[in-house]
Each structure stands twice: as C-alpha cells, then as structure tokens.
Amino acid sequence: MTECEICGAEIKGKVQYIAIGVSKLKVCKACARHGTVVVEDKKAKAKIGGKQVLIAEAKRKLYEQMDHEIEEGMEGVEGYGRMLKEAREKAGLKQAELAKRINEKQSLLRKIENEEIIPTDEVRRKIERVLKPFI
Question: What per-residue confidence (pLDDT) applies to 67?
Fold first, then answer.
C-alpha cells in the first residue's frame, strides 16, 4: 500500500492528492485538510481547439509540432559549415583571424565549420558581413 506523505501512516482506501504551495502530495483522508485537494485523473483531459483530448495525446501533438518547426528552421542551414570554411579559406583567413574580426571565439567557428552547432542569427550576420565577397 501507499504511505501518507505527511504523517507516514499507511493509506487505507482512496488516496487523496493535495497541493501545498507548488508541491503535490499523496495523503490520507485525515491529512487532506492541510492542503488544497487536487483531483488527479490518470486520463485527464484538456480542451484543445474545441475538442477534448487526452493530455498525453495533446503533449505528443505539441512535441510533434515543435519538432516540425525545428526541422523547418534548419532548412537552408545544411552545408553552412562547409560553405563558411570555403569562404574563409578564399578570404585567406585562419579561424583565429576570422574569430577576432567578428569578436567571437575560435572554438565557436570550429564547431560551426564542423557542423556541430548551428550559429545564431547574430553570429551569422557577423560572419556574412566579413566574408560577403567570398560567399
């Protein structure tokens, strides 16, 4: 069985869920008076776009939408590191020299060129300002 998270007694019957501040606790009926009773339904529903949907399904849809938006945002970024390296070499600059000109760390440029990270818009603007004739 489950123990009350306040008094430690074994909970007989239905577990009560209460909120004290931001904490949610499983308590016995006697300790439920110490907080605000919260209804915990394993199949809780949320209303999305006028439809009632299970929260798990709503979360899944949200994460799918977020993944889709991230993938859309990455279009046109593929090959950016290779393009950056080629433009830098055409300009006759070493990573350290370019980094100094754009006021960024050399390690950042190395990671961008190796396509380990995607540069922020600000860093892209700095790079493009210096290497524009070579891109």
Answer: 77
**String of b and e for 96-108 (b: at least 16 CB within 10 Å)?**
eebbeebebeeeb
Give the tokens for residue 41. 């339904």
Domain map (residue ranges) of the chain: 1-40, 45-74, 80-134
Copy the structure tokens of residue 30: 């006697």
Cross-strand bridge partners of residue 17: 26
Q: What is the CA radius of gyration of the chain?
A: 27
Structurally, at CATH architecture level, domain 80-134 sits in Orthogonal Bundle (1.10)
The tokens for 53 are 């949907």
Phi, psi of 74 (to 5 degrees): -90, -10
Higher pLDDT, 117 or 62: 117
Average pLDDT rounded to a whole number, residues 82-109: 93
Q: Which of 135, 127, 74, 66 is nearest to 97 (CA)?
A: 127
- The 36-37 sheet, strands edge to edge: 23-27, 16-20, 36-37
